[in-house]
Amino acid sequence: MELYRLTASELSRMMQKKEVSSAEITRSVFDRIAQKEPEIEAYITLDEEGALKKAAEVDEKRAKGESLPPLAGIPVGIKDNICLKGLPATCASKMLQNFVPPYNATVIEKLNAQDCVYTGKLNMDEFAMGSSTETSFFKKTKNPFDTARVPGGSSGGSAASVAAGEAIVSLGSDTGGSIRQPASFCGVVGLKPTYGSVSRFGLVAFASSLDQIGPFGRSVEDVSMLYSAICGKDPHDTTTVRREYPRFEDNLQADVKGLRIGIPEAYFGKGVSEEVRAKVMETARQYEKMGASLVPVTLPDPDYGLAAYYIIACAEASSNLARFDGVKYGYRTQNFTNLEEMYENTRSQGFGDEVKRRIMLGTYVLSSGYYDAYYKKAKFTQKLMQGMFQEAFQKADLILCPTAPDTAFKFGENSDDQVKMYMNDILTVTVNITGLPALSFPCGFDGKGLPVGCQLIGDKFSEQQLLNTAYAYEKAVGGFDLSKTLD
Ligand code: GLN
């Protein structure tokens, strides 16, 4: 058995029993990268030397008899908008092509405390704006199930690397679906945590009130392990919440008896492909057979969610991205005669089209005269949506629906039509707008052999319940099938 195929929990147990070393696992993952990367292009930066050095250190600690945390020695890939000291954090943008952060994000400090090994930095859409990695300045990551298709985005590299065996687990970020949609397209598990449960310190901001970092894995247990490692109150991020966070993997229970699963009709409606609808409904029926009950719930119209998201996200992005001016970070134009021109040329040359589009949109909705018409209305809609979810949670313990309207699309299929591309986020964005946790897990394949994602949405801080429910399905079907991408 090739080690790169195994899950973090399996490898962790094997290392504890001294059946394998972190060096052997890391070697296996880098051999796999050498084999698959020319085709998949999941990484922007690889750090083989750093990874092997760290693996050797972990093995040495273990040999000395030190007791190590569960993720010690596990190769983890990191999305390129998360600062990892000493490696470039490009955000897949020309603007930050040469930016090497002098500090670690809090999530990296937390993974350091676990003695993780870092494979490198993963490709994404530029500044996390997109659903396919097509807006990356550097490369397009391919879907390991079909390389003519996108891996989803913006965390496309994070999902594809885990599906293809080029990382054991990975971190991504989710502002409007960027963990769940690529997880769905690549047949892996992805968790978007409750807003405020994971520190954003050291995550390059897109839309600060929506952004959350979260884990990808090939099993629910792996996602639980990684989430346990990164969550918690952080003095560097005042939006993080102080509370008891359990070790989620230790409390996993494959039991859904008595669980009330909410089915929102509007999320199975127009725009959702027949095959996706059928597969996800089949999953709901399976839960019913396992002892759960299905209850209809009314959620905010996804169309309003999408409109509110693109106003709020762009407004915040326009403000957050003002810092990239050629003075403080990254790229500076060569051709300018005065300060004004320097700003203008730097930003014109440094940002790609999608980022510029969003900065303009965001500046527009915040400008006087339009603020009331757009931004204020979007914030008002956000409040209403939060209320509707709270009502739904009176009737149901959690909500089940598709993650994305369809399975992975082909490169170029949506890139000329922004609205079509934005429609891909229609089932994921309301979760960010309302700050709720949600998880995507694979629930089978469509007729083309592409994975279908099932989304579970819970009330704030109900991650354990989401993980347990997905775990129950995983156990019932005997594990998620990645034989096609790991072979
Ligand atoms: N695809 C969505 C967008 O383009 C979500 C991005 C994200 O979650 N980072 O905004």
TrEMBL record:
Heterotrimer of A, B and C subunits. It comes from the Bacteria. The active site is at 79 (charge relay system), 154 (charge relay system), 178 (acyl-ester intermediate). Allows the formation of correctly charged Gln-tRNA(Gln) through the transamidation of misacylated Glu-tRNA(Gln) in organisms which lack glutaminyl-tRNA synthetase. The reaction takes place in the presence of glutamine and ATP through an activated gamma-phospho-Glu-tRNA(Gln). It comes from Candidatus Faecivivens stercoravium. InterPro entries: Amidase, Amidase_CS, Amidase_dom, AS_sf, GatA. SUPFAM superfamilies: Amidase signature (AS) enzymes. Belongs to the amidase family. GatA subfamily. NCBIfam families: gatA. This is Glutamyl-tRNA(Gln) amidotransferase subunit A.
